[in-house]
Amino acid sequence: MGNLLDLLVEPLRYPFMVRGLLASLMVGTLCAVVGTYVVLRGMAFFGDALAHAILPGVAVAYLLAVNLFWGALVMGLITAVGIGYLSRRSQVKEDTAIGVIFAASFALGVALLSTVRSYSVDLTHILFGNVLGVSNTDLLLTAGLGLVVLAAVFLLYKELLVVSFDPIMAATLRLPLDALNYLLLVLIALTVVVSLQAVGVALMVAMLVTPAATAYLLTRRLWQMMIIGAAIGAASAVAGLYLSFYVNVASGAAVVLVATGFFVLAFLFAPARGVVWSWRRGRV
After folding, report:
1. CB under 8 Å to 85, separation ≥6 — which residues?
2. From start to end of the chain, where are the E strands?
């Protein structure tokens, strides 16, 4: 018992680990809640594209020597609104619009970063995250934007629910469909930006999708899916960070691998939908 307690307490003696744990908890919870809509609406490709498309904003912020957070935020919002506009106001389908903007933005970001001598190291942190490098300022920004996103989801829960599952009813109820759809894109963009330093661009979509997909296997109610997903996301973040500390692996990758482990367990053993239970019922 004493050894276990020592294992839990040891990382907390380092301020950067405490900040990393707090940031990971916030990111894991936020990604799971917003990721519920991503999973239910089949927007995983959008989340992936958005995570990569913010790279030019990060690159410009780096070149101007300002906080990368602000560059990512501006580019994320522009990209989300741009994809929404192209897919709704032109003859281009949504996945095509996403693909075009994703490829162009990512290429522009890499081109800008390649002008910096040390770009390979910086690009690694951007792609795979550096949650242990979170500062007090980053922590406050993460908490502030995270609360804004969660408050929007809570206050507009019913409206977003109707728009996501029954657009025809939403139109009948005269809900502002376009405004709510744009709002959801913006909320996803904010979530991506908030999570950038924790898991990085390359692993961002995993945190948006995996905890929510795990919760989807365990329940069908939206609010329950959000709560279960948030618990899984938070647990994955904490366990992944401890794993990173003791095994000396990349923190973002460790968090995603733990979340994937939870998904595999649910996929196999979920009471109603698990593969094992389905196989056993088929044999009875």
Report:
1. none
2. none
CB 31 within 8 A of CB 207: yes
Looking at residue 14, the DSSP 8-state letter turns out to be S
What is the count of structural domains for the chain?
1
State the Cα–Cα distance between residues 231 and 259, nearest whole angstrom: 11
Per residue in 197-239, pLDDT (tens digit) is: 777 776 778 888 999 999 999 988 888 999 999 999 999 989 9
Residue 133 lies in a domain: yes
Residue 20 lies in a domain: no
Cα–Cα distance measured from residue 109 to residue 229, given in angstroms and rounded to the nearest whole number: 32
Burial class (CB in 10 A: 0-12, 13-18, 19+), 228: buried
What's 120's domain CATH number? 1.10.3470.10
Tens digit of each residue's pLDDT (9 = 90 or more) over 142-158: 889 999 999 999 999 98
- Does any domain span residue 28? no
CA distance 153 to 226: 10
Structure tokens, 228: 């279960």
Q: Which DSSP symbol is given to 116?
A: S
Nearest to 262 by CA among 194, 210, 205: 210
Rounded Cα–Cα distance for residues 236 and 127 (Å): 19
Q: In which domain, by residue range, is 133 found?
A: 42-283
Closest CA to 72 of 176, 142, 12: 142
Burial class, 18, CB count within 10 angstroms (exposed 0-12 / middle 13-18 / buried 19+)? middle
Tell whether 14 is covered by a domain. Answer: no
